[in-house]
Every structure is written in structure tokens, then in C-alpha cells.
Design brief:
alpha+beta; eight-stranded mixed β-sheet; five-stranded mixed barrel; 13 helices; elongated; binds 4-amino-1,4-dioxobutan-2-aminium adenosine-5'-monophosphate; binds magnesium ion
Length: about 425
């Protein structure tokens, strides 16, 4: 009977067939081992020489890494083997060969591996990262579904600049001039929040950033909830619950993957609300006290973020940044109009900003003033300004960067491994 590795537990003692790819083989002359991957898991197939036919034994000898094969045998429960089951194999048939597979068990350089990303995805670490990412995505959808948020899919081709004029990919759009690849879905979920109350979008976003850091991609996935009648404080409470939920879910369901990645889970276990909160102004004082020459008014850089976050073992909220370093849509702070009602959320262990969020400017005149002050064209924001004309409402939201979150949870140094096919300034292939 044809089955899959994840289903072996239902077939203990039975004769089954598995289709998959050869990860490794070894043989002592008396007994041979094949580790098979079929997408649902990996399993060790054991070929005792005296119990398999001469032809099968010879075919085993021709197996190469990543050949596609069908293995038949008996499922054997074995507490010592990963997954708890082994296959005592009787036969193996090669259905498609693999000659000179480029990624061998020896060490390879990073650029070689990324050039072979389409094959590298099959490696154990990459399998684990992909499954953690998948779990995070599902946890995100479940979190919002349970809280009655409506998912709204926002456009990727847009006519209005969402975040930063300097970081846009643009393309000719028929007779309408320039279209931009969306930097954010936020402006659109704000419109949708007036329709549905609580909404979110979750999709690819684009930044033509010339940053070659381990935290930047030119295409990344962002989840952006937007809520009517929620202020900045309520926004942070949701972020706290959201991150706690995501991390808890991965710890609960992806323990095996975290182990494969040799992730120390102790720091992740500590991620439960409430998270510490400091103002931007306090952050500047803390940085200055630890010897930094940063001055009030400057945006925080990656090193500043790492230094601030190091003082805590939970994610850290930094609130109320200067207006000048943040986007036009953030609401002015009534207690200090030099600043806005925003927050960044900095992950622990040096992973930096994973969330940017804010209460939105709901005053028509102030918003129009900010649009003009930033040199943006008010005509392209007419529809966005309309939201302040027809039933304007207190509302807030945030954006969580998926790859940064996955990189942090996996404990991997660079976010380029947190997506199947990363897009960076110097990488468009495969
Ligand atoms: O802080 P950002 O730019 O915020 C926004 O785009 C808002 N519109 C979100 C909102 O309020 N709805 O980006 C949000 C998050 C960052 O915290 C980071 O995790 C991620 O998106 N991010 C990137 N991830 C990878 N590569 C890049 N170049 C990124 N830029 C931002
Ligand atoms: Mg940000």
C-alpha cells in the first residue's frame, strides 16, 4: 500500500510503499541504510542483505543523492529513530535518477548555496525553517480569525506612495503614468477598517532599499492589522498578544524543527506579555548613558536597537518617535507635538525591529499638512483623505515583518534564509 512518512504510525507491522528522494545512504556490506524524504517527513529504511533479493541489493548500490525512488518494506516501531518509526525495506526502485547533485554533505559557501536555492530547499535546515515559517503564517491567520478580523487583500500595484518616496519600485502603467509596487497595504486596510471594523492584510511588500544588511530584503511579507476605535495603547496590547501567540504556537507545534535548527528555546519561552515600554526620548537617554553620541531627533539604527533590546529578555516597545523620522500618516502626539503616537517593537537577542505601528492621523487638516510637508502629491491621496471626511474615526494598526519574525524565532543570523526565494539588491536568481 502506498503511504507517506507522516502516516507510518498508522501502519505499524504492515507492508507499505513510499515515494520520495534519497537524502543519504550508507552500507556495511551486511546491512544498508537509506534516509528517505517524501515531503511529509524523513525516515530511515533498513536493508538487511540476507532478507532482500540480490537485485534489490544491487539497486541499493546504485542509489545517488536526491534520486527519486519507491521503497517497499515493513513499518517497524522504533523509539530510538527520529519520528519513532523505521522501514525494514525489501526493495527499492529508482523512478528518476540524480547525477552529481551539487549540494553534497560537505560545507558549501553561502553564495553557492543561494545560486542553488531551488535545490538547497531540500536540505534539513531549510526544511525546518520553511516549516516554522508555515506555522507562523497559519498562527497569524488563526489569531485574527479567532478575534473576528476580516482579511482584506490589498493591491500590489498602487498609485500612491505608502511609506518612503526614496524606496519605490515603479513601472509604466498604460496611459496612467507610474505605478508603484506596494510598500505597504496600510492605506487600503484603513479604508477597509471603516467598512469592517477590524481587518488585516498579509502579503508581499516591496522596498527598493539599498541596504545590504541581514535585516533587509527588497521583497518581504508583511501582516498588517488595522482596527477602528483602538488607540495607540490598545494597538500595543494587540501586538503583545499577537507575538505571544505566534511564539507559543511555534514552541508548541514545531519543537522538532527548532531542535533541528539547534535553537535554544529558553529565550522564546520568556516571550509573554506584558512587554516593557519606553519612549523614544527615554531610549535616547539610555543610549547616551551607555556612551552613544546619538542625539534627540535622529532615527534609531540597527546597533541602537540591539543595545536597547539587550537590557530586556522580552520584546521591547519604543514609543513616540520624532515626527520627522516617521511616515506622514502617524498621529501627532497631543502631549508633545514634536512626536507621534507610534511604536516600534524590537525583538530580543539582537533581532531588531519586527513591528512598526501607530495610531493614524484622523484629523483632515493635520493629515493634509503632513502630506504636503513631506512633498507628496495631495491629489493621489484624495481617496485616503476622504476617510477623514466621511465618518473619521480613531484607528490604529501595525505591520509585522514575516521574515524578521521567522529569523528571530529560528535563531538564524540572516533573514534571507527565512523566505524560499529571497530578493535582495544583488539577487534575482533563481
Ligand atoms: O515599519 P514599517 O516600514 O511599517 C509599515 O510599513 C507600516 N505601514 C505598517 C503599518 O503600520 N501597517 O515596516 C513594518 C515591518 C518592520 O517592522 C519590519 O519587520 C518589516 O516590516 N520590514 C522589512 N522586512 C524585511 N526587509 C525590509 N526591507 C523591511 N522593511 C520593513
Ligand atoms: Mg519601521
Amino acid at each position: 500500500m502506498m503511504t507517506t512518512i507522516s502516516q507510518l504510525r498508522h501502519h505499524a507491522g504492515q507492508q507499505v510503499a513510499l515515494q520520495g528522494w534519497v537524502m543519504t545512504t550508507r552500507s556495511s556490506g551486511k546491512i544498508a541504510f537509506l534516509v528517505l524524504r517524501d515531503g511529509t517527513g524523513t525516515v530511515q529504511c533498513v536493508f538487511p542483505r540476507k532478507e532482500v533479493s540480490e537485485e534489490s541489493w544491487e539497486r541499493f548500490g546504485t542509489l545517488t543523492q536526491e534520486a527519486c525512488v519507491t521503497v517497499t518494506g515493513t513499518v517497524r516501531e522504533d523509539a530510538r529513530s527520529p519520528g519513532g518509526f523505521e522501514l525494514t525495506a525489501t526493495d527499492v526502485v529508482v523512478t528518476a535518477p540524480s547525477v552529481d547533485y551539487p549540494i553534497t554533505p560537505k560545507e558549501h559557501g553561502t553564495s553557492f548555496l543561494f545560486e542553488h536555492r531551488h535545490l538547497w530547499l531540500r536540505s534539513r535546515r531549510q526544511l525546518a525553517i520553511a516549516r516554522v515559517r508555515h506555522e507562523v503564517e497559519q498562527a497569524i491567520h488563526d489569531f485574527f480569525y479567532e478575534r473576528e478580523f476580516i482579511r482584506v487583500d490589498t493591491p500590489i500595484l498602487t498609485g500612491a506612495i505608502g511609506e518612503e518616496a526614496g524606496e519605490l519600485f515603479s513601472t509604466e502603467y498604460f496611459d496612467l503614468g507610474q505605478a508603484y509596487l506596494a510598500q505597504t497595504g496600510q492605506l487600503y486596510v484603513e479604508a477597509a477598517a471603516a467598512a469592517h471594523g477590524k481587518v488585516y492584510c498579509f502579503g508581499p511588500t516591496f522596498r527598493a532599499e539599498k541596504s545590504k544588511t541581514r535585516r533587509h530584503l527588497t521583497e518581504f511579507w508583511m501582516c498588517e492589522p488595522e482596527m477602528a476605535f483602538v488607540d495607540s495603547a490598545g494597538n500595543m496590547e494587540l501586538q503583545e498578544a499577537f507575538i505571544t501567540h505566534i511564539v507559543g504556537r511555534v514552541l508548541d507545534r514545531r519543537a522538532e524543527e527548532l531542535q533541528e535548527l539547534e535553537r535554544d528555546t529558553a529565550p522564546l519561552e520568556k516571550v509573554t506579555g506584558p512587554f516593557p515600554r519606553i519612549s523614544y526620548t527615554e531610549a535616547i537617554s539610555q543610549l547616551q548613558a551607555s556612551g552613544s553620541d546619538i542625539e534627540w531627533g535622529r532615527d534609531l539604527g540597527a546597533d541602537d536597537e540591539t543595545l536597547l533590546a539587550k537590557a530586556h529578555d522580552k520584546p521591547l516597545f519604543v514609543m513616540n518617535y520624532p515626527k520627522a523620522v516617521k511616515a506622514f500618516y502617524m498621529k501627532e502626539n497631543p502631549d508633545d507635538p514634536r512626536t507621534v503616537l507610534n511604536n516600534d517593537c524590537l525583538a530580543p537577542e539582537g533581532y531588531g525591529e519586527i513591528i512598526g505601528g501607530s495610531q493614524r492621523e484622523d484629523n483632515y487638516d493635520l493629515l493634509l499638512g503632513r502630506i504636503k510637508a513631506q512633498g507628496l502629491d495631495p491629489a493621489t491621496y484624495k481617496w485616503y483623505l476622504d476617510l477623514r471626511q466621511y465618518g473619521g474615526f480613531v484607528h490604529s494598526g501595525f505591520g509585522l515583518g514575516l521574515e524578521r519574525t521567522v529569523a528571530w524565532i529560528c535563531g538564524i543570523p540572516h533573514i534571507r534564509e527565512a523566505i524560499a526565494f529571497p530578493r535582495q539588491i544583488h539577487r534575482l536568481y533563481p
